Amino acid sequence: MKWTDDRSGNVEDRRGSGSGGAIVGGGLGTLIIAAIVFFLGGDPSSILSSGSMGSGGAATEQRQLNENELKIREFVEMVTAENEETWTKVFAENGLKYQPARVVLFENTTQSGCGTAQSAMGPFYCPADQTVYMDMSFFKELEQRFGAKVTEFSIAYVMAHEMGHHVQNLLGTLGETDKVRTSGNYSEAQVNKVSVATELQADFYAGLWAKQTDNRERILEPGDIQSAIDAAEAVGDDNIQKRSQGYVNQESFTHGSSAQRKEWFMKGYNTGDIRQGNTFNQLLSN
């Protein structure tokens, strides 16, 4: 992936700050934790609020970030800036105004508008404070346990997916899906289908971002799109279930299969058109 000269001021780096804190507990099972760790995106507030808070951890000593960590921050600032520029353009083309999200880099635990964030959750978007939270150790797990080769562009894909949830929040999509989830009027299987549609739309938005940003900045290098596809497939529900429990239960899917995640990312990339991303009509009509 080619770097640009753009940098965003909406990135906060909490790594090395010495902040300990409470962690989420409350009897979450191993398989649920595995799902939290390796699913990308979504609103974690229901999971966070359902767990009891453990005792506060002792604050760790502050430390200086090393050269590699500083480079990671600069990369995240660049990708955030390119998301801001692309989505500002897309919103303007549709008569809307884009409000940028914040990005927080952290390690171990930190506080979010949705509760206590921890590394085991993987990257996520919190609609309450319109912020993407990322502990970069997630990408080691993605590579070591789920077979995705991590590149700069696979990291950019994950960020773009989370920014896709921010787009959904601004457009009111997340508010509508939350009503479905909390209404009590739908079965678990129906709620799961809505969740899948939500996540696949975020994948579509990530592909759209890749296309439009490359059109503007020529950021893509050979192999970049394949690395994003590999990451998307690695966190498909079927792949995660096979690796964590040895079998696949399609009715319990909440993020979509590996094939679906690839399909919708590529649809966003191939069309570059936000009007083509209505996953809800296609998935919920079946």
Give an overview of the whole structure:
With 286 residues, the chain is α/β, with parallel strands linked by helices. The protein is built from eleven helices and six strands. The protein has one domain (11-19, 30-42, 60-284). The strands form two sheets. A four-stranded mixed sheet has the order 1-2-6-5, covered by helices on one side. It has a two-stranded antiparallel sheet with strand order 3-4. The model is unreliable at 20-59 (pLDDT under 50). The relative contact order is 0.15.
Q: Characteristics of this structure?
A:
globular, 4-stranded mixed beta sheet, membrane, two-stranded antiparallel ribbon, 286 residues, alpha/beta, 53% helix, transmembrane helix
Outline of this structure?
About 14% of the residues have low confidence.
Quick one: how many beta strands?
6
Shape summary? globular
Reported for the largest beta sheet, the result is:
4 strands, mixed
Give the SSE order as H and E letters. EHHHEEEEEHHHHHHHH
Low-pLDDT runs of 5+ residues are 20-59
User: CA-to-CA gap between the ends?
Assistant: 38 Å
Beta strand %: 5-15%
Q: Helicity range of the residues? A: 40-55%
On the 0-100 scale, what is the average pLDDT?
Answer: 83
The helix-and-strand class reads alpha/beta
- Give the radius of gyration: 18 Å
Strands ordered across the widest β-sheet: 1-2-6-5
Number of H- or I-type helical stretches: 11
Number of structurally distinct domains: 1
Main location: membrane
Subcellular location: Membrane
Transmembrane segments: 21-41
GO molecular function, one term: metallopeptidase activity
